Amino acid sequence: MAVPKRKMSRANTRARRSQWKTSAVALVSCPQCRSPKRPHMACGECGTYNRRQVIEPNA
Amino acid sequence: MPKPTKGARLGGSPAHEKLILSNLATQLFQHGKIKTTEAKAKRLRPLAERLITKAKKGDIHNRRQVLTVVRDKGVVHHLFTEIAPTFAERPGGYTRITKIGQRKGDAAPMAVIELVTEPLNAVTTTRKAPEPAAAPAPEPKADEVEETKAEASADEAEVTETEAKKDDEA
Q1: The domain spanning residue B78 has which CATH number?
Q2: With an 8 Å Cβ cutoff, are B100 and A55 in contact?
């Protein structure tokens, strides 16, 4: 089985990991309560989707 | 070659998967609305709709076929006598899945699957009106190119004729 010959330097490891990036989650405003929510999902604040009550609001 | 089932595999074995889906179907018909993971909801929807279609037929053969999935006779009775008549007019699409975000703990995407209770709206198919589509096209032709004016006017005449026909049909 192929195995690494040398230990990878800290610089190389860190240079590779510098490319690990996160991206901001996409948000839209709820048509019912105007609070930010994720698209295609029920609003967590008022519990509606397309103005239809889906779940109990977590108030 | 058999076509694989769409969607995620559930549980640890085919028997476990079958049991999960039949339990979910039973709970859905019992409560009308259940909260589960997106993957399970997506697998449950075709099964539940197939069972409702059988319930709409309503004879003893279909009842026995539903009983092989939903083992609870009370729930099957409720499905055949209460739920199926409400879907008499609806041509499929008996359930609705709404995503409600991630579960705390394992961040599994959750969803609510429910039986549609709203009355069926008559689908109004609005065909494109012929006037706005046909009217703007000949005008720029006539302004820009004078040579093809005769042809354009001929086209316009044809268009108006067809419009008149369409109006007559409508």
Answers
A1: 3.90.1030.10
A2: yes
CB atoms within 10 A of CB B32: 14
Q: Classify residue B29: in a domain, yes or no.
A: yes
In chain A, positions 8-37, which contact chain B (CB-CB < 8 Å)? none
Number of domains in chain B: 1
Is A44 within the bounds of a domain?
yes
Tokens 């000949």 belong to residue: B138
Q: pLDDT by residue (tens digit) across B86-139?
A: 999 999 999 999 999 999 999 999 999 999 998 887 666 777 666 555 555 554
What is the pTM for the complete model shown? 0.72
